[in-house]
Design goal:
Helix 10 runs antiparallel to helix 11. By secondary structure, this protein is of the alpha/beta class. The strands form three sheets. A five-stranded mixed sheet has the order 1-2-3-4-5. Strands 8-10-9 form a three-stranded mixed sheet. The protein is elongated. Among the domains are: 145 residues, no CATH class; 150 residues, no CATH class.
Length: 466
């Protein structure tokens, strides 16, 4: 196998884990950016209102960007890029406008001290047919109050009764559209947040749950892993199929036909490579999303996504080698050799992917090119270093910490070349003979030749005589 083919083979082995890692790292990055924009919007609103509004009024102003921005953060966590929300600056009837690619909705927010007051405020006729949001600790009171007032005004003030009933039907503690929703906010927390802004000009984001772990759910991790697995499988299938397609074209040019038996084998190679890459991509994506989002604890949020992708690929590769070792397909030395090679080549491949993405800031193209260069370079360096190590082992008998097998028995080929008859123990039959019929035959020779036995590599990481 050529150096390029070795590097390309390593790329196909590693692309799944790298693809899954990049996908999930980008996903968590999008959620984190959305959360940061929420904090920034709250900070700007507080700075704009803090000198003209008391805490009781400021909490209501803060509730508007809170629900608008946390809705967008929730949409990012659900993997939705079509959901939008904003707080209009024209002081119109609606406090928040939001929607998706096909729908536009309008919402009115009220954060008064008591639920009864909030219910009456939301029932203003100009808020009719708007979505209505209040503090999460008042929602039940708002609904009950609005329902009671609707019945009370049904006969004498039917129009106002309809507005109360509209509040009872629509009141909620969050903005919702499709599978995304804003974070509920109770009146006490909203007021406490207003106090923090008035006192320090900023807030502790973790205190108010403004972090990725409060937006990303395990179902999001599962969805992201599935998408990453599919992307990895598609990319691997394309890269695996490319050499086969070229081989078929060349075969058709040279012979005028295509061997269908080879075609079936090539198709199986593509399917196997895509399935393996999909598995690696899915596992790497799930681990990356769970760690970086904080679902597995704050200590793992700082883990490098590349380290996760590398560990995932190495673990799955080691499991594959373990099965082959158990089945006797490879030896202990081959198992150690493959694991050591994968660690080295994968490290250079991931480093190359990182550098390539910086040099070529086109999604995936830079990482793919950098990975190919890094994997190829890593394969060259590893094989060169391996030859040097084996050369030292040949001369010194060193076992390289048990990774190289030292065999001091003379091989059968060498024995045959030396004129010795070899036999198989299982097929050797003993025969008795009489000493009376035993005679010695002499021989003479005019020349004597010999071939020296030397030490060298006789198998993968195995040193012997030949």
């Amino acid at each position: 196998m050529s150096t390029f083919e070795e590097g390309y083979s390593r790329l196909l082995d590693n692309i799944g884990g790298i693809n899954g890692t990049y996908d999930s790292a980008a996903y968590v990055g999008n959620v984190e950016n959305a959360v940061n924009r929420t904090i920034e919007a709250l900070r700007n609103e507080a700075a704009h209102r803090v000198n003209v509004s008391s805490e009781d009024y400021l909490k209501g102003w803060l509730a508007e960007p809170w629900h608008a921005e946390t809705l967008k953060a929730s949409a990012a966590a659900r993997g939705r890029s079509d959901i939008w929300a904003n707080v209009p600056a024209n002081n119109g009837a609606g406090d928040v406008l939001y929607g998706n690619a096909t729908t536009t909705l309008e919402a009115q927010l009220k954060y008064l001290k008591r639920g009864e007051e909030t219910a009456k405020g939301l029932s203003n006729p100009k808020f009719s047919r708007m979505e209505k949001v209040g503090p999460s600790d008042q929602v039940e009171i708002i609904k009950e109050t609005a329902e009671r007032l609707a019945l009370k005004n049904l006969l004498n003030r039917p129009e106002q009764a309809a507005h109360y009933q509209d509040t009872a039907d629509r009141a909620s503690d969050s903005l919702q559209i499709d599978n995304a929703s804003s974070k509920p906010l109770d009146e006490k927390t909203a007021k406490e947040m207003a106090k923090d802004f008035r006192k320090d000009g900023d807030i502790d984001a973790d205190k108010y749950g403004l972090n990725t772990e409060n937006f990303v759910e395990w179902s999001d991790v599962a969805r992201q892993a599935g998408q990453a697995a599919l992307n990895a499988a598609i990319m691997s299938a394309a890269l695996t199929a490319a050499p086969h397609i070229w081989a078929m074209i060349r075969e058709h040019i040279e012979t005028g036909q295509i061997d269908t038996n080879k075609l079936a084998g090539r198709f199986q190679d593509v399917l196997h490579g895509a399935g393996t890459a999909g598995l690696r991509g899915g596992v790497a994506a799930a681990l990356t999303a769970a760690c970086k989002s904080g679902l597995m604890g704050d200590s793992l949020k700082s883990v490098s996504p590349m380290a996760i992708g590398m560990a995932t690929t190495l673990t799955l590769n080691a499991l594959d080698y373990s099965f082959k070792l158990q089945q006797g397909i490879i030896t202990n030395q081959e198992f150690a050799h493959h694991c050591f090679r994968d660690t080295f080549v994968l490290s250079t491949g991931i480093f190359g992917a990182t550098v390539g993405q910086i040099i070529i800031p086109i999604p995936w193209l830079g990482a793919l090119a950098g990975n190919l260069v890094g994997s190829t370079l890593g394969a060259v360096v590893f094989e060169g270093a391996n030859q040097v190590v084996l050369g030292v082992c040949v001369e010194s008998g060193w076992t390289f910490l048990g990774m190289v097998s030292q065999d001091y028995t003379v091989s059968e080929d060498v024995l045959r070349q030396a004129g010795f008859d070899t036999f198989c123990v299982h097929s050797f039959n003993k025969q008795s003979f009489s000493t009376k019929s035993f005679s010695i035959q002499s021989f003479s020779t005019n020349s004597l030749s010999f071939k020296p036995v030397r030490r060298g590599v006789i198998a993968c990481n195995a040193i012997g005589n030949f």
